[in-house]
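Sample pair:
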Amino acid sequence: MSAGLAPFGALSPADIARLMQQTRPQMDVSADDVPAAVPPGFTGFVPPTAPTMQPQIAAAVPAVEPEAPARAPLRMFGALPPQMSAPVAAEPERSPLPSLVGSRAPALPVGAPAAPRGGDDAPAAPAAARPLSFGSLPAPAAPATTGSTAAPAAPAPAAPAAEPSLLDRIGDGLRNLNANGGGDLLTSLGIGLMSTPGFGRGAAAGLKAYQDNEGKRAASDLARAEFGLKVRKETQEQRQLAGNAQYVTSKIPGISPEQALTLGGNSTFMNELFKGVLPPAELYKQYTDDKGNIWNQNARTGQATVALKADDDKTVTPVPEADRVALGLPAGSYQKDANGKISPINATGTTINMGAEKAQDATVGKAYGDYQVDLATKGRNAGNTLNSLALMEQAARSPNFYSGTGAETVKRANQFLVAMGVKDANYTKPTEVFDALSNKVVLDGLGGSLGPGISNTDRDYIGRTAPTLAQSQAGNLELIAIARSLAQRQQAVAKLARDYAANNGGRLDSGFDQKLEEYAGANPLFPAAQASATQRSDGATGANGPGGLAAPRTQADFDALPKGAMYVDPADGRRYRKN
């Protein structure tokens, strides 16, 4: 080791002789020939006593491609060169000269010509940097046999990728966060924390603001998208309208641009124009053949098309009453179709495709149909009402029955006594039966059920007209009699309607009203009450005439007037005195 560190300890006498022959005499050792830093422990090299020599200059080699900077190697023996060249293989024939310790020139092979200096004719070639070495360096590779004197370039090792710094990683993370909307979230959280006291409340306020902003942004994006679609649709329509106008101009020479645009916006016109047919409405005429078929004929071309076949015509007309009698048809309404077929009108009294003058007949017929159904329903319910009234009268005549003031309290007290065993169970039976049946009578008066159109006020009104525990015993018996008369009249009217409909084609009309009025006059519902009714209302057409004078409407009213009384005849409105 010590021999290798001496100035020429590693050189043989022949090597020294060759080295001395290659050096130029009378050259001083410059500062560049001295190592940059020599450890203080080394004694094998003394610059003042070193022989004067010129550093060897290596032969020119091809330039090496730049490499990525690598990490600086660990420095153990002073300052070393920042980069080391790749080793090259030695020539098999001869060994190269080793470099001197402290010299920056690479070892030269035996017989290599000296590199020219600045005073020579050839320009000096740049020397590759060589590291400081101790002893012999590896021999250079054999020259290429292609005729070129340049040494081949050594392959460059791949440099490892530099690791990103902490700041680079933080920056990449922030950029990714901002790209995914994290910047807005952090901004909203910061504003919420700064504007709202408390961490939890501030974070909640920030998150809510972020959600609101996201919702507004989504709504804005949707609105922009919709606006874009509308604009595109409008553009397409304008382009289509312009194309239609251009097509119209080509088909109708001499038309103005405004008229072409107007016709281009008419879809019906354009459809016909695209078909190559542009017939005006007046070119068609309609006629009916002997079979009842309706035809449309083009007056310009003579072509006829079927507009309506006779079998497809559903138009009907009502059959007049005189024609019905002449045809011997039973009583009722009939209609005739386009083919002459006569058929009865349906049960609801409505007709098909009848003229406007028959609209009133249809409305009146429907009203009488509903009236007929209502009378039949009330007649059926009247039988149930009569049964309930008979049971209520039986209960009201029981000695244990009580109604009137405090009847509900008395009933509950009696029920309590029966439950305690103080009174017999049959003691409260009449009152309980009467109370239950009174509710049924109310339902019968409403048509069997409360229905969707019955209010509580209607129910209370009907309840006050029915026999209940709130009335006295005598009052309940009188109300039972009145309700029985009303139920019997409903049965009578229902029978009268059935008889009239049987003789009138199964339906009611205005003639039934006349029959009902005659029946009511011949069979008064409460004859005793009507006979004793003397109170008359005011009015010229009422029981009393102008000035408080009597206005008798019947012979009984006239007979009730005292002799010499003034009265007004309702027939002519004139005043008379009774003789």
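The mean pLDDT is 71.
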